[in-house]
Amino acid sequence: MAIHLGANQYGKAENRVVRIYRDTPRHQIRDLNVSTALRGNFEDAHTTGDQSDVLPTDTQKNTAFAFAKEKGIGAIEDYALTLGARFLDASPAAEGARIEVEEYAWERIQVDGQDHDHSFVRTGGGVRNTVVNVEGRGAERKSYVVSGISDLVVLKSTGSEFHGFLKDEYTTLPETNDRILATSLVARWRYDHTEVDWDKSYDEIKGLLLSRFATIHSLALQQTLYGMGEAVLEQHPEVAEIKFSAPNKHHFLVDLSPFGVENPGEVFIAADRPYGLIEATVTRDDASDAGSAWHATPGFC
Amino acid sequence: MAIHLGANQYGKAENRVVRIYRDTPRHQIRDLNVSTALRGNFEDAHTTGDQSDVLPTDTQKNTAFAFAKEKGIGAIEDYALTLGARFLDASPAAEGARIEVEEYAWERIQVDGQDHDHSFVRTGGGVRNTVVNVEGRGAERKSYVVSGISDLVVLKSTGSEFHGFLKDEYTTLPETNDRILATSLVARWRYDHTEVDWDKSYDEIKGLLLSRFATIHSLALQQTLYGMGEAVLEQHPEVAEIKFSAPNKHHFLVDLSPFGVENPGEVFIAADRPYGLIEATVTRDDASDAGSAWHATPGFC
Amino acid sequence: MAIHLGANQYGKAENRVVRIYRDTPRHQIRDLNVSTALRGNFEDAHTTGDQSDVLPTDTQKNTAFAFAKEKGIGAIEDYALTLGARFLDASPAAEGARIEVEEYAWERIQVDGQDHDHSFVRTGGGVRNTVVNVEGRGAERKSYVVSGISDLVVLKSTGSEFHGFLKDEYTTLPETNDRILATSLVARWRYDHTEVDWDKSYDEIKGLLLSRFATIHSLALQQTLYGMGEAVLEQHPEVAEIKFSAPNKHHFLVDLSPFGVENPGEVFIAADRPYGLIEATVTRDDASDAGSAWHATPGFC
Amino acid sequence: MAIHLGANQYGKAENRVVRIYRDTPRHQIRDLNVSTALRGNFEDAHTTGDQSDVLPTDTQKNTAFAFAKEKGIGAIEDYALTLGARFLDASPAAEGARIEVEEYAWERIQVDGQDHDHSFVRTGGGVRNTVVNVEGRGAERKSYVVSGISDLVVLKSTGSEFHGFLKDEYTTLPETNDRILATSLVARWRYDHTEVDWDKSYDEIKGLLLSRFATIHSLALQQTLYGMGEAVLEQHPEVAEIKFSAPNKHHFLVDLSPFGVENPGEVFIAADRPYGLIEATVTRDDASDAGSAWHATPGFC
Question: Which family does it belong to (chains A, B, C, D) (predicted)?
Fold first, then answer.
């Protein structure tokens, strides 16, 4: 019986890189969580303990911080692409590099109705992220960019139905024509190429996801997600496909009848667990090959 | 040797009450986390297991949901005061009721530049809360209101120094004239009475905390907090005292010199643990007696 | 109108101190989370920003790590007492020091039925902790020790009833003679003095809490907690009082009747929120004065 | 441009199923977290909102609870296989079912040196889990079982080196011949077939992972993981491959030299972020085809 090393990957996860731009009195902040990983021909490191092919995870960390200054941090996609290319160049045994970046959003604090120059408050409304995979050398170099948003908590208080579903002997759910629909949306979209105005694309897609969530009359969370994805693909030719992972955050109507109180869709209990979990992909018929774009992306591979 | 029951309290924690106002097509949402508790003469429940004085926590939960409809939810302080009074009335053995409410903020989703009628996105920027204690019966009834904000994450990228501190043989910290100052602020202020426009007071105090954080040139987090509290007391006569609990979320300057790169206050690593923790009270000389206002408020008693 | 600084405290929280004893091939590990704080006359630090009385939180951190080597770590109570005394001595403006230590438990890994010398696996079954407050100088020095356990998750599948409770118009809870009783226990006991064999006392009290939970036929969680506390006080003269904070982790019987299936106390859903929360103190009639023993202990003050 | 639905899956996540066996006075408890999902031809649900092919997630929940009684819960693998087959049978449009189960371990409470009949304390030492995928109908039915353990926190205080690694201009890490090695292990192994004594296999594999972690002299976490996996494959012919995801939980030696104190590998600070993250697969040369075994398993696909 013979045994061998299969798929593998190693790197430094969750480097909390904070970059301040302070060339003028009006500072800017980029607040990132950066995870990097290399994969490839690392048999010796595993089987004999010989680390001569292994660029330490500590070096990956150092590079992530040094590049924040040397290369700067514009769009997180550009920063991730630069890091991925660097790691492949610095690690001859590596076949691929995976760079994941989350960006936390800050707004300027208001003082007397004006934005302050160097004071900020963290905002909610979703966390922007990207996953970049870089593979190959020289003319074979390929780069894949999947960007997205997580923790986008949305709710509509009407305009959501759920009925006409399949029933079996374990089905007790009543049909409804009016319920609360709420989710903590995770969306990730794969770009067809890297010639993209990343910030503009992200802002528009986020806006589109929100407005479609609001305006689609929902017959199921599946149908809402599909409509959201369809709109993104229709209006964003740079996007090849989009994937969603959306917990159905149940809001159960509370029965107030024991107290002689009617409750026509007004008082709900927000439940924690269990929750529905809807995952869906919306894609173009002629989408480019995904290659390693979705490599090791939790919940999306 | 005799043994007896000391301080005690029981209730239902973290009722996730969601109230939709839908009388017009333009819905409103109040999204709360409600914890209620009673304290008093509950010896029998503990020593003999006789529950005849105990209003079940399940009943407390039912009341929190029923009142969301029967009484409605305006300012969380009013809702909490109403619940507290109710529980004292319904429970003859109780001497005090403690009601804690957190409110999660939602904004309307934008569709074509307009606020949508019934679709919302959860925002960040702090969680509003209140702790209400109600005691006594009839003419002896007293109500205490402590309101506050948590999870208000703020950062300033300059305008913060730390030097001139006490040194002993374990001191290695260099002095600095320019550092990042960041915290996840928890502030709680005790109202002097209950004749308050709660929403207006909260909005103004939150704005004041933010603007003072921005404009105070900081010599230490202690000094920043004191200045923030002082401003609140100066401008809000309805506030008797204010307490802060503020982790000093360290951002360490990264040493890039091994790579021949200068780092003049531009690249930082945001650390998790350990963190400084600064707790302070700012109070009026003539503040009213706190009574049970701070009863069982974690970190503030 | 005059404003002044009230109660205050500052320190370094959550120092993750790991101490290995390796004087022989059979290593030992102490794995701690240490939080330290000073309180006292720190007006200048707050009002003028003058830090000359402030021993930096960074120095507190350094001391916690240095003492792990210089003084060693035996029982966490001794380590905390030593740190508290040190900080008071090093900080003339301080009136009190508060040291909180959590200890994570490890067991030796079994290899061929033998305990390994230097390999360990983290166990559950509760986290031991202590809160030590030290005050005063010279002959006035007082030290208070409150030790405890958290995250002790226990459940009994029968032997628990709940009935005969007070009812009002919002009461719908059915009475029951057989339910699951489960909690994630937090217990903290105040020692009457510091002449205690800390490890022995902790081990015996933990064992007693568990065995009493098991053997008390429960008429309510309140009664179970009281009985547990009473046993501790009866058998441990070194303990002045004991406090509990115990969520009633509800396990609801699932209604399987729609599927023609009986469910005589066999299938439950474990709920997250809301949960009952029972807090109680059991004390001696002649308990010593608590002084600052419970100072700033979340949930217990 | 045409757009279509791609990969999709829906179900009910995190059903907290607790099953008590109480046929004799000596009760038994199975405490599970169950997530179920269906995938297949659900285009209509997404594109037109027609739910006639959709077995509600609520029904999946009901079935998970009902089967806990009707079928009982033995090994979690058997329970998951039964649920998966049921859902495929009940849902004609489904092509595959994915069932994930975590099991929380409880020990009997000791009373006077004896195991109590119906009182339990939750233990640590890792969470057992399984992911079962069932596909096809009739003779085409295939079932895949991947079982594993998570949250297995292990540490060795010596016997770990790291040197001889690749260096570039961003490398500053010193080489070491003696460091702490610690991880919170996640391991998942794919069974070659379903004719397995699940409990016995799990217990032995867990024991083997622990003992190999202890006894392998480590030259890198990669090499330790490989050795652990190799041992499992050598001794467990029922296992086709095993995958690891292991954070390198860094313990940094604290520099006590500023205080004139030596620190020969005795005092460490346990860091939170960043952490190394090592992922590796160990597989047989003649492993069976994985099919959908790793479908949607976060971190392992």
Answer: Belongs to the uricase family.
Q: What is the domain extent for residue B263?
A: 152-288
Residues A131 and A78 in one domain: yes
Asked if A232 and A104 sit in the same domain, the reply is: no
Of D170, D272, D273, the CB nearest to B259: D170
Peptide bond before residue A258 is cis, with ω within 30 degrees of 0: no
B250 is catalytic: yes
Residue with tokens 């659900």: D42
Count of other CB atoms within 10 angstroms of residue A89: 14
Active-site residue (options: B27, B57, B59, B283): B57
- Please indicate if the annotation marks B162 as binding a ligand: yes
In the annotation, is B118 catalytic?
no
| Residue A1 belongs to some domain of the structure | no
Amino acid identity at C271:
A
- Tell me the residue ranges of DSSP E strands in C48-137: 94-104, 106-111, 114-122, 127-135
Q: How far is A114 from chain D (nearest CA, A)?
A: 36
Out of B22, B62, B211, whose CB is closest to A266?
B22
Indicate if the pLDDT at residue A299 is higher than 70.
Answer: no
Burial of A195 (0-12, 13-18, 19+ CB in 10 A): exposed
Q: Exposed, middle or buried: residue D43 (CB in 10 Å: 0-12, 13-18, 19+)?
A: middle
Report the CATH number at residue B250.
3.10.270.10
What is the distance between the alpha carbons of residues D182 and C258, in angstroms, rounded to a whole number?
A: 50
The domain tally of chain D equals 2
- CB within 8 Å of B94: residues ≥ 6 apart: B38, B39, B40, B41, B55, B87, B88
Residue A95 has pLDDT above 90, yes or no: yes
Same domain, C238 and C161: yes
pLDDT tens digits for A52-87? 999 999 999 999 999 999 999 999 999 999 999 999
Residues whose CB falls within 8 Å of the CB of residue C202, separated by 6 or more in sequence, listed in order: C75, C128, C147, C149
**Contact partners, residue D209, CB within 8 Å, separation at least 6:** D149, D152, D185, D187, D228, D232
Q: Which two tokens stand for residue D184?
A: 């919170």
| Contact residues, chain C, for D153 at CB < 8 Å | 121-122
Could D13 and A277 be called an inter-chain contact, meaning their C-beta atoms sit closer than 8 Å?
yes
Annotated binding residue B222: yes
In a domain, A210, yes or no: yes
Residue with tokens 């809702």: B79
* Tens digit of each residue's pLDDT (9 = 90 or more) over C199-253: 999 999 999 999 999 999 999 999 999 999 999 999 999 999 999 999 999 999 9
